[in-house]
């Protein structure tokens, strides 16, 4: 009898060792400080998957809430990922957007990881980053959205004001980081013009506007913005306002002026045309 009892116990222990971890892996109890982004990252899933599996209509979660964090089909097809923590030292010209882009992160993830309350960073600042190396290149290709229509009446009204105001500012001197009529840099000029034309946008760099606030257009129209790379720093570093016929108004090195995108200097640095997300 003893041997049968011992065998039964042994079998039960083996079964529990096999079953319990699978059950635990399928759910997670929300802890203090957790966010959907953090939980998704830890379990190698997306926020949208978490919301779908748990019937969540918003990103709000609460302590001790039980969340399903895996799906059978997803788990079976998951690619192994090796992740390690690394450090990036901020250099001249760096922004959170450029650092995040280089390290396959979002600005929100970078800010959360480093407990940053704003987008302000400084030279020689040490930032933690996540280096992710897939075991094999099996990433799904996601096509970026492209706008195929012209702005509606309200958007066109904003564009009319943008173009008129931009022309009025021709000759305003160039000032690094300037965003007033005393002087502009390229993104400061764009921010000033669009804000005064009625579009609510924050002051950002050309790269930040490109990555965070604009969508590509299939056919540019006067009033859209145009981006360039590798001007005074690597990556996207300059922008202007397209006015048609291959021309754009921008804060150049000597001041606000009209240039041609077909000029050899700009043509070889042209990235593309986009539209602010607030224009409909």
From TrEMBL:
Protein family (similarity comment): Belongs to the peptidase C40 family.
Q: Which residues form the signal peptide?
A: 1-25
Q: Which UniProt keywords apply?
A: Hydrolase, Protease, Repeat, Signal, Thiol protease
Instruction: Cite a single Pfam family from the UniProt record.
Output: LysM
- Domain spans labelled LysM: 26-69, 86-129
Q: Does the keyword Disulfide bond apply?
A: no
Question: Origin, by domain of life?
Answer: Bacteria
Do you know which SMART domains this protein is assigned to? LysM (SM00257)
> What is the protein named?
LysM peptidoglycan-binding domain-containing protein
Does the record's keyword annotation contain Ribosomal protein?
no
- Identify the InterPro entries for this entry: LysM (IPR018392), LysM_dom_sf (IPR036779), NLP_P60_dom (IPR000064), Papain-like_cys_pep_sf (IPR038765), Peptidase_C40 (IPR051202)
Q: Which residues form the NlpC/P60 domain?
A: 156-277
